[in-house]
Request: fold
Amino acid sequence: QMSRVIVLVDMDCFYAQVEQRDKPSLWGKPVGVLQYSANGQSGLIAVSYEARPFGVKRGMTANQCKELCPDIEICLVPQGEYADKADIQKYRDASAEVFAVLGSIDSRIILEKASVDEAFLDCTAYVESRVTKVREETIQRLLDPACLPTSFIVDGKEDEKDEDETEDEEETVDEEARLKRKNERIEMIRKRKIEEFIEKCRFDDEFLKIALAAEFAERLREKVREKTQFYCSAGVGNNKTMAKLVCAAHKPRKQSFIPPGSEVDVLRNTKVSSVRGLGGKLGRSLTERLGINTMGELYRTPSSVLTATFPDNAPWLMQIARGEDYDKVDSRVLQRNLGVGKNFPGTMAIYTNMNAKFWLNGLTKELRKRMADDKIKHRRLAQKVVVHVTTDVSTSKSVKVGATEEKEGRLFEKLWPVMQSMRKGPGEGWKPPIFNISLSAGRFLEGLPSKENSIIGWVERRTKQLEEMEGKDAVEKLNRDAAAEEKRRLEREEMGEEEGEGEEMEGIFMVDNLDDDDDDDCLIVE
Ligand code: CTP
Ligand code: CA
Ligand code: CA
Reply:
């Protein structure tokens, strides 16, 4: 069957690293990046790894984190021009530097920007071209400890933990020695598992392909570091979901990969909400309606139950539970949406229409500015703007826009009535009040990806390869499956359940959503 090799690269504490690079004395120190806001709602949006052991988390105020970590260095996000918004251009520029490196490494690799600090790379063609090379030589190279220096195998087996806790009887003479021994043990297990994995590569091309992609990812991360000074982590797997999932297993400055066939083991104890595409409504309703908390539980749920409860999504849910994901890596370096938004938590909630108008106006100006920048940079024009308002429920409406709306004030004139139409009940105000307003411009005209990297090109290439390997019938079936999957994906997206990392929403703070980095509550979905 068709198997792919996908790498997910995610920058470590990205905005914090940008600040550390700006001010090198901050490297190695606990750093928090604070988004200041005139209404008193300052909150951390990035936290360096040095600050994390103190319990400092995204969303905390300056005071809260100073209490936990008195030595923390706080960097402020520059202020934007409009609507009391942060100006995150400097982080976007740093992101562009990273993507320039990611995109320049090998033309056979398909690169998809998934968010400001994250990219999927489809390395299938690249590793397949290398698999055929002299095998013994390749294996010897991979066995060299210098080849995969920061790689970990994630196979869902618990043996790391067992061995970790054994030697505890020896009096903890000093903490330092104990920590050193512990790290040595971790390193020993890491190396042993890698060796076992590479040994399997002698007989199994699927293993070899993953190992080659991991080798590639090591070098790619090294290159990113060399060119930008930034550290990142990576995950390698047979699809996007698994690559993203294992990337988080060892961070920062590390990478992880899964032995083919271990997907179900890796997923067994994974929380549903940590899985790509299940971070939102769909994931929540799995828990609420069926009591499913982990992927293992989802895997064991009879298909009849899933089909009865989630008729449209059941096939996809069952696939994901098996660790299968056919979502393709789109050659896409441009964002699909330009978004601006703001939270109004607690007492900040908007009750009056005048206040709503004020904020919509500010956000619209901010959006217009971004659309204008984007137009110049990418020579494309948004054809649609979505207004998203959260009161006790979230509602969104989209409007067609065009050249007319580029004129000062025109976009607001178009959006304000739309927002008005979302107001419930009688009277002038908003009851229940507004907790979030977001705008997103999308459905761009022009701005197509370059020809040789285009999705079409990729599909054509793969189709030809497959036809040679498997015959026409199998390929036709695959294409039908792919079409059906694409349709379901679009449906999920429409329902607002796709995690939508692509539609990044920057500068919003998640004051009311501190616990996990489940960003999707603030994402705009068409
Ligand atoms: N970000 C944000 N608002 C959010 C989520 C993320 O502004 N609600 C920004 C952060 O400042 C962050 C960047 O987007 O630096 C990337 O986010 P993410 O990858 O989730 O976290 P990192 O800070 O990079 O930390 P990690 O090392 O855990 O990936
Ligand atoms: Ca990150
Ligand atoms: Ca990220």
